[in-house]
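W.,

You were right to be curious about this one. When I first looked at the sequence I had no strong expectations either way, so I just let the prediction run and decided to look at it fresh. Below is the sequence, 88 residues in total, followed by the output.
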Amino acid sequence: MKIHVTVISKPTIGASGKTGFWRTFKPVIDYEKCTNCLICWLYCPENSIEIGNGMVIINYEFCKGCGVCANECPFNAIDFVPEGEYNV
């Protein structure tokens, strides 16, 4: 059985538009703990974690603040903080 992936079934960033304003909490990466294992990237349901300059970056314009990335990180490198607070 061959499965065809179409444009509709292929995940894209912000298929419904920018949705970051929905958040009440946001993930913040502690780069001293992060090993770039990409587990957060793999599990992000919104595809809002990107890879740039050899490191993972959260695209806050599309991140809904679900916390899956923080929950799945095996190194506890992602803190989940109230929106408006910046914790590095």
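Here's what jumped out at me. Helices lie at 39-43, 68-72. And, maybe more interesting for your project: The domain at 20-82 is CATH 3.30.70.20 (Alpha-Beta Plaits).

Coffee later to discuss?

I.
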